[in-house]
Amino acid sequence: MSRIKSLLKNTTAIVVLAIVGSFSFADTNAQEIGDRVVVTASTDTKIYDKVIERVHEGNISTVEEINGKWCKLDRAEGWLLLQNVMNLDMGLRHFSKRIKDNPRDSVALAHRGVIFHELERFDEAFTDLDKSLAINRKNAVTWMLRGIVLKSQGKLILASKDLNEALSLNPKLPNAHFNMALILYAMEDYPKAIEAFDAAIKLEKKKKHALWYVSRGSAKLGIDDLAGASEDYKTALDVDPRLADSRVGLSNIALLRDDLESAFEEADKAVEIQPKNAMALNARGWVSFKLGKVDEAIYDLNRAIRYAPRLSIAYGNRGVCHVSKNEFDRAIADHTRHLKLTPNNPFALANRAVAWLGKGEFEKAKMDYEAAQKIAPELDEALNGYAWFLATCPDEKYRNGKLAIQKATKACEISKNKDWYHLDTLASAYAEELDFENAVKYAQMALDVAPESKRNICQQQLERFQRKEPFRSQVGKNAEQSIISGS
């Protein structure tokens, strides 16, 4: 389960994109292809003279095509008049003038709040939506929008209350179900998140939203439903073949199945589809690292960070790459940045401990491992990392075989003895206690379940314990036992 949870740290970012969209600060002079725009007047879209659908004022979309005075948006079928859309800066001025002319224009306040949210100006977005609700508390959409803003601010409980209010006013509001699902996903309540995604997808009968299927697929990963997740990612590809997030999801599934070639192929396709998609670059970078192509991995992760400077997972993964090259100061800097973006992250703490260990800063390593344990006592890979430190630290002062056996045993129980590196750590812990009978036993179990690429490491460990020799850590050469996969 922990390997899936660590991969879900990747897919969470996909879900955030599903709420917020892609941010760009449009030029203030005219609409161009790729601009984020707001619809300023409800209007019908057309193909020739046939009306296709109604696009409502306040909707935010991306311009996909322009033909004279007509444009096509990514969230609508057919063409609408270009005069009825404005880029975001123009949209702010448009709705601000309406509010100035009529301070009780609850609709204009709500629309301006949505634009502020799109620009990540969350406090201003909340203020406008709060004022809108003070004028009209019966508008389900406004409750939903304020809930989305609260979610973006990390206030999940308050956000869920607003979304519940929206659903009480309009139980058939698909977007409210969808955003409630995102909150449940963020809370790691995957079964309820899947139920909410199901409701959203069922209610939105006329349209299929590719990102909705991607998001539900990610939730299915949380309950180990790899087949169901794969089906959703493939459905998303059918709806929108140009959505890189679907390929990222399929790459994650292949990674969970230890099929590194397929994982790389899917991640590579994701980058091909969207070369500047930070999640796709992060995914390909991590698979490259798993394939031993560390420099290629760092290249992709550098680009991911360039395109998305707040993508915390990319810093974590790059930090792991630096450890494998014995670049411990760089690794510590990356994991520290990861922690600043996601405070109290046990994955980042445990991986930074590996870098401290490699640098010989054993006290700092111990502090980070203990902090990770305090935050997530059931996180098996953090347990494994701490046990590895206690069993193999070069400084005798920090070794504690009995505690290492306790931590490693718990990690193996959580992972049901299916992870070779947990079993290998337990074997090393018994070796520290000079119990070579059990050391050999668990080293053999590690060898039995290890993937082909790791069998040589396990064979060497088995032979070492058969010679009745304990193991001492050489981080950088064999740091994999301590590094959390897909942190």
Overall geometry comes to: elongated
Number of helices: 23
Percent of residues in β-strands? 5-15%
The computed structural class is alpha+beta
Q: End-to-end distance, in Å?
A: 14 Å
Average of the residue pLDDT scores? 90
The total count of strands amounts to: 7
Percentage of residues in helical conformation: 55-70%
Q: How would a textbook summarize the main sheet?
A: 5 strands, antiparallel
Strand order of the largest sheet: 6-5-4-1-7
- Which residue ranges are poorly predicted, with pLDDT under 50 across at least 5 consecutive positions? 10-29, 476-487
Oligomer: single chain
Give the SSE string: HEEEEEEEHHHHHHHHHHHHHHHHHHHHHH
Radius of gyration computed on alpha carbons: 25 Å
Note down, in words, how this protein is organized.
65% of the residues lie in helices and 7% in strands. It has helices at 2-20, 88-101, 106-118, 122-135, 140-152, 156-169, 174-186, 190-203, 210-221, 226-239, 244-256, 260-273, 278-290, 294-307, 312-324, 328-341, 346-359, 362-375, 380-392, 401-414, 420-432, 436-449, 455-466; strands at residues 36-39, 43-47, 50-55, 60-67, 70-73, 80-81, 85-87. It has a 5-stranded antiparallel sheet with strand order 6-5-4-1-7. Strands 2-3 form a two-stranded antiparallel sheet. Helix 1 packs antiparallel against helix 11 (244-256) and helix 11 runs parallel beside helix 13. The chain is elongated and about 85 Å long.
Secondary-structure map:
Blueprint: H1 2-20, E1 36-39, E2 43-47, E3 50-55, E4 60-67, E5 70-73, E6 80-81, E7 85-87, H2 88-101, H3 106-118, H4 122-135, H5 140-152, H6 156-169, H7 174-186, H8 190-203, H9 210-221, H10 226-239, H11 244-256, H12 260-273, H13 278-290, H14 294-307, H15 312-324, H16 328-341, H17 346-359, H18 362-375, H19 380-392, H20 401-414, H21 420-432, H22 436-449, H23 455-466
Helix pairs in contact: 1-7, 1-9, 1-11, 2-3, 3-4, 4-5, 5-6, 5-7, 6-7, 7-8, 8-9, 9-10, 9-11, 10-11, 11-12, 11-13, 12-13, 13-14, 13-15, 14-15, 15-16, 15-17, 16-17, 17-18, 17-19, 18-19, 19-20, 19-21, 20-21, 21-22, 22-23
